[in-house]
Amino acid sequence: MPELPEVETIARELHAVLPGRKILRVDIQLPKMIRLTTASFRRRVVGQKIVGVQRRAKLLLISLQNGWTIIIHLKMSGQLIWQPTHGRMRVGGHPIPRGIEDLPNKYSHVVFVCTGGTLYFNDQRQFGFVKLIASEKLPAWFIEQGYGPEPLGDDFTQENFFALLTKHQRKRLKPTLLDQRVIAGIGNIYADETCWLGRVRPSRRISTLMQKERVALYRGLRKILTLAINKKGTTSDAYRTATGDKGSMMPFLNVYGRDTKKCKRCGSTIEKTVLAGRGTHYCPKCQL
Ligand SMILES: [Zn+2]
After folding, report:
1. Ligand 1 geometric centre to CA of 285 (Å)
2. Mean pLDDT of the chain
3. pLDDT in tens, 214-242
4. What are the catalytic residues?
5. pLDDT at residue number 236
6. Mean per-residue pLDDT for 13-34?
C-alpha cells in the first residue's frame, strides 16, 4: 500500500493537472465503491470544478468548488489514472496490470469525465473507496475515523510525539508507529526506516526507550518522510507516481528490503523477521 510519501507524490502530481477542470460526467461501474447512492454522488459532483488535490494520512482529497471533497483511498491495489485528451497518461498508485492497458477496463469502478481528460479510479482487489464529504466537515471526519496527527505537520512537535509514546508505554515500537490512530500515514517501509534511524529495534517496548532514543526516533521519522517525498516515494512493484514514473527513494532506504545486505552504518548483516504479522528489517548490531 502506498504510504504517506507516495500518496503525497500522487496528490502533488494530480494537483498540477486537475485544478480548474470541470467534471462533466461520472460513470460508476461498481456502486459499492462510492459509499453513497449513485444519484446523490452525481448530484454533488457533476458540473463542479476541481479546486485542488491534497493528501491527509494515506488518503487523497479532491476538493470541488461547491464545498464537497472527494476522498479516495487506494489501499492494496487502487490506482488513479489521468488520461488527458492530448498528452501523456498519468498513473498514480499501483501499476496497471498487464493485458488490460485499455481504459476503461473491468477494474475502472469510478470514472470522472472532465474537461480535457478523464480520471479513472481502478481497483483490482476492491479494498479501496471513493467517498464524498462536505469539505468543512473534513477535520471532524478524520477525528471521527480515528486518524492520528500528520507526522510532518507543524503541530507535530517533539513534545507531542513523546506524549503519544507515553500513551502507548506498554506496546512495542513498530506496531505503534504503524497504528494510524497514533500517527497517520506511516506504513511498513517508513516504520522500519524510522527504527533504524533511531538505533532502536522495532520490537522494543516503548516504556524501555531512553530519552535520546525518543529524540532520535522523532528526528528520524521526520527526516525519512521528508526525504522520501523529495524522492517521490519508494517504487515497489505495487506503486507508481502519478506521472507513471518510478519514485527514486529506494537507494536511500537503509534497512527495508535490504535483508542479507550490509548495514550502511556498522557493516553488520541486516536481518528480517516477522513482527505483528509484518516483514520487519533491522540491524542486529546497531539497533538496540
Ligand atoms: Zn548496523
Report:
1. 5
2. 93
3. 999 999 999 999 999 999 998 765 566 66
4. 2-3, 58, 278
5. 63
6. 93
For each of the domains in the chain, give its residue range(s) and CATH number, in order of start.
Answer: 4-144 (3.20.190.10), 158-282 (1.10.8.50)
Ligand 1 centre to CA of 218 (Å) is 19
49-78 pLDDT, tens digit each: 999 999 999 999 999 999 999 999 998 888
pLDDT reported for residue 244: 62
pTM of the predicted model as reported, rounded to 2 decimal places: 0.92
Q: How far is the CA of 287 from the centre of ligand 1 (A)?
A: 7
Residues flanking ion ligand 1, Cβ below 5 Å: 263, 265-266, 268, 283, 285-286
Cell numbers 472532465 correspond to 114
Predicted confidence (pLDDT) at residue 98 exceeds the cutoff of 80: no
For residue 26, the tally of other CB atoms under 10 A from its CB is 20
Percent of the chain having pLDDT more than 70? 95
HEC sequence for the chain: CCCHHHHHHHHHHHHCCCCCCEEEEEEECCHHHHCCCHHHHHHHHCCCEEEEEEEECCEEEEEECCCEEEEEECCCCEEEEEEECCCCCEEEECCCCCCCCCCCCCCEEEEEEECCEEEEEEECCCCCEEEEEEHHHHHHHHHHCCCCCCCCCCCCCHHHHHHHHHHCCCCEHHHHHHCCCCCCCCCHHHHHHHHHHCCCCCCCEHHHCCHHHHHHHHHHHHHHHHHHHHCCCECCCCCECCCCCCCECHHHCCCCCCCCCECCCCCCECEEEEECCEEEEECCCCCC
Ligand 1 center–CA 196 separation, angstroms? 8
CA 194 vs CA 180, 191, 201, 274: distances in Å: 15, 5, 10, 17
Strand partners, 204: none
